[in-house]
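The protein record quoted for completeness.
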Amino acid sequence: MIKTLEKRWNYFLIFAGLAGLLLRVLFVEDMEYKEDEEYNFTQTQLIGVTQPWPWSGINSGVYIANPGMSIWVFTVLAKLFGIHQPTALATAVQLTAWLGIALVVPFAFKTIKNSTERTLWLWSYALAMVNPFLILYQRKLWPQPFLPLFVMLTWLSWWNRSQFSGAFFWGCIGAWLGQIHMSGFFLAFAVFACTWIWRRNETHWRAWFIGSVFGALPLIPWAIQVLHTPIHERISVGLQEMLQFKYWVFWLTNPTGLHLGNALGILRGPTHWDQLSDFARYPLIGTTPTYLTGLTHGIMGLTCLWIFCRGIKSLWQHRSQLANCLIGRSSSTLFLQNASFLVAGILMTLTGVTIRRYYMAITFPFEFILMTRMAQPQTHRGKALLMTLWICQVFISANFVNYIHVNHGSITGDYGAGYQMQHREQSRLDAR
């Protein structure tokens, strides 16, 4: 019986990986292609040909140019595989994102010795593979799809930080995280600070320092450039932004997959729920709506509510152990989860900058680990809740990809017209 259950579990992990792969690479011609995406692709064709390697990238959401590595990751892919089309680059980015999530599986089996803790990682892998938000963001030509790969390499290095090589790469790759996306600076500092305070004796700090200096070298020209560039906009929006607690709101809601409203039109369009309500009609049978996507959202919402209630109940039952839990004394997974959830969140929130949902990509996979932990996967009911959530997210993600394909994008939503439609329109105009 035990061997049969293990075999089924392994089959499920493989199936989840295949589902995640298809959801990322299908209909790549329908990808988003707006200012940021066009810029990132164009730079890959110019760098090393007519332009030198840049020390800075496109301006961030806080009006400071991103470090150069935010462009280098695209350029390296393009040079390595001889890519000269936006769709080819998008496929390479999607595969990189998928690989980053897939690394959770060998990491969990090789590194996580406790079976209960290992289950948390494996369920987080399965949920991340099909999560609608990750499908949306990892089909973009944005730096965020690279983060799962680099953060997984960071966690692997951190786990081996007592050795010179592990500590060196923890410092080096940790320094790269913020250069790929500036949210990485907050996470890297949070993990460093927590490790220094509570697990100082377990780390080869000299190797970490050398690695950090080496990894931070590309930041020097960027920092000089930023200091000499006048900032015409406010970096911080102040107290109002802090009091919205967006970091934690996004952390808790991202794993739910609810909802894709911004991409599909909740903030745009003739009416408030214009295209989101249209998405709820899918899939269509001919021209007849089934409203199964809307129904699935309802089931998924109730499932997530149940999971949150289980988590709150468990937290209350173990309130006497709260201090030890916050420090993560019993588990390295819990230690890193809380460093990401609490310390990185506090640091980012105190800056007062506008925190966007996709910034949370830097915390992978701990958003999903916390959701899994609240569901209590070691219990029969917890497994059923997680499987229900997984099935719902597969269905919604598949319908999202199909909706974008059928409608050639989401015209009144933030998604806009897909690349193929833009290309056809441009070809039509050129032919005039």
Q: What stands out?
A: The beta strands are 56-59, 65-67, 284-285, 288-289, 409-410, 416-417. The CA atoms of residues 156 and 244 lie 33 Å apart.
